[in-house]
Amino acid sequence: ASVRGGDERVTVDLEEGSVESLRQSMDGAEAVVCCAGFVPEYLGKVDAQRCHRVDNLGTRKLIEAARESGIEHFVLLSSLLTGLTPNDGNLNRKLLNTLGNVVDEKREAELALMHSGLKYTIVRPGVFSSSQQGNIVVGESNAFTGSAQADADVGPPLRCASPFMSSSGGVCALTRAQVAEIIAGVVLNPEAYGRILEIVARPEVDAKAW
């Protein structure tokens, strides 16, 4: 992970680094944006171990370091479907969780942040698209779970070049630039404190800035 402040870049190891080393890297910072996530190799045990170290333990270390540093605002980039539990029986959650138990691990990180005492915002996108497929649609927790009813609340079915896997046809994937736009809009924004924002795209909606 890299933390940039002014003209100084500090590189830290999110997996092996200590909470203290992470805390020192935050000196002078007002906010932390955590976009950490493991890269799957599609090897069951290997992915599970790496995901646990990065998406769960590493993120929780960063949260603790931020708490000790007195950080004003912590923004966590998570994932759609993390608001569901196995008992909800959502097939899309089950499929996504086959990648290193990523839904479970990210949910633990979310809960750690929510109970940390920090001002926080959790942003949950789906998969990413290389090209823009529409403007950003923002919902609260569990707004986009792939159910027909959830998508019906957004609008009629449509075709996407790169649909989100849990969509029954109502929403499309975002570009990384669109996700960055949302993050830039919520950092140190009091209206975003304590919020969980789920974000997808639809081509016919009006563009709205955060």
What is the helical fraction, as a range of percent? 25-40%
As laid out across the biggest beta sheet, the strand order is: 3-4-5-7-6
Poorly predicted runs are none
Main sheet attributes: strand count, strand direction, barrel closure = 5 strands, mixed
- How much of the sequence lies in strands comes to 15-25%
Evaluate the radius of gyration: 17 Å
From the spread of the alpha carbons, the general shape counts as globular
End-to-end distance: 26 Å
Q: Average the pLDDT over all residues and give the rounded result.
A: 89
Order of helices and strands: EEHEHEHHEEHHE
Number of strands: 7
Helix vs. strand class: alpha/beta
Number of helices: 6
Notes on the structure:
The protein is α/β, with parallel strands linked by helices. It contains six helices and seven strands. The strands form two sheets. The chain has a five-stranded mixed β-sheet, with helices on both faces. A two-stranded antiparallel sheet has the order 1-2. The two termini are 26 Å apart.
Helix/strand layout:
Elements: E1 2-5, E2 8-11, H1 19-25, E3 31-34, H2 44-69, E4 73-77, H3 91-96, H4 102-114, E5 120-124, E6 135-139, H5 148-154, H6 176-186, E7 195-202
Parallel strand pairs: 3-4, 4-5, 5-7
Antiparallel strand pairs: 1-2, 6-7
Helix pairs in contact: 1-2, 2-4
